[in-house]
């Protein structure tokens, strides 16, 4: 909090009050700590592109529950275009992706899965552009 207060040229108490107001207004949904993935033992990123023949609310909820139980899946998005979903998987080694894949297909029927291994992170973060806030 002290670093943030110094960066925005406010006292610690004023900065804390502003953050509290942003939280109360719903602009701040949660506070997080970003862990170093290398030190945590999960440096490998695999993106799995998923196609399904099912689009019912029931199937989507089953899929949502299946992936929520897998801690290696850190993000999942429903897509437009050629694939229906993309999931971001973080692992110690790429060979362990098969374990995650098997956990998913045991719980839900998929039409096609295509995985890509991230070779290099060019940009990463949790920041959101603030210029669009109302």
From TrEMBL:
Domain of life: Bacteria
Residues making up the signal peptide according to the UniProt record: none
Alphabetic keyword roster: DNA-binding, Transcription, Transcription regulation
GO molecular function, one term: sequence-specific DNA binding
BP term (GO), one: response to amino acid
Domain HTH asnC-type residues, every copy: 1-43
A Pfam family the protein falls into: HTH_24
Keyword Transferase: no
GO cellular component, one term: cytosol
Protein name: HTH-type transcriptional regulator Zrp
